[in-house]
Amino acid sequence: MGFNCGIVGLPNVGKSTLFNALTNTAAAEAANYPFCTIEPNTGRVSVPDPRLEKISAISQSVQDIPTYLEFVDIAGLVRGASTGEGLGNQFLGHIREVSAIIHVLRCFDGGDVTHVEGDVDPVRDAETVETELMLADLESLERRHDQTAKRAKGADPEAKRQVPVMARVLEALREGKPARTVNVSADEEPIFRALQLITAKPVMYACNVDEDSAATGNAHSERVAEMAAAQGQGCVVVSAAIEAEVALLDTEAEKAEFLETLGLVETGLARIIREGYALLDLITFFTSGPKESRAWTVWRGATAPNAAGEIHTDFEKGFIRAETIGYDEFIEFDGEQGAKDAGKMRLEGKEYVVQDGDLMLFRFNV
User: Quick check: pTM over 0.85?
Assistant: First the structure.
């Protein structure tokens, strides 16, 4: 299953610099002019999780294999993108394919980097991008609504279910509200998801601040945080410049020492990963043994067979049961055998909903 976050924003806000730092590559050229990123660059980053190391140590595993999250660096958007300005069509096409949006906003003054709008105002920048995305959704949905309404008049039962949902979303977009603000019932959720609207995707704002503001934020990032809170979206303060420097250091000890001098206890990557997981509503389960301890990602609410399918489709098809130990019990009783002896190992069936941190061994038959 692919979980990916598209990194978006106006040109020259630090998107590619942040992407390079996050993925520790130079795949995306970072340059002081618009559209230096023309094709989306994709990078996978391991999800830092101290639980994996503790599990591995108890199991005396030969190797640890973390779970991953994918980042996609997407070409910068400009005002008028919804009508094809700049690289608008490419931008909109690429952003439709990601699961969630990390919207990078410039929250630092000065410097040599030219702002495409002439001055620094992250809230205005966020509204510019959001407006273009809403206009793109509006144009797309208006066309589909008209076609679907005609089918509904012809007694198409699926079209009849779709039209009311489309109508409510159209009303919101015309009022300048993103699609994610529309309340839909559980029965309507599949219809809503099938519309594949850009503004239905969850958003996290990444406030790119100067090095001196990395630990505390600044007036610009505070405005963004207030906006994000009002919208119910995520917000992270990060310095792309610092992340770029951290990425060049060789050891974890060097990175920790460097961050400490700046008053930071973790990298921006760790914060973005954590918020990205929350944004996508993901959880982690583990498998562990002498050969390897491994972290796996599933969405919150996934069942035991769903989790088994993340390892191999045959595990899901032939699922019988899952031998399950909670993370806290695994640590407290010093591993699988200790948890079993203490009666903490549970046999869970097909209806079991996976909990974050579960250690699972799947029994299956195909």
Answer: no
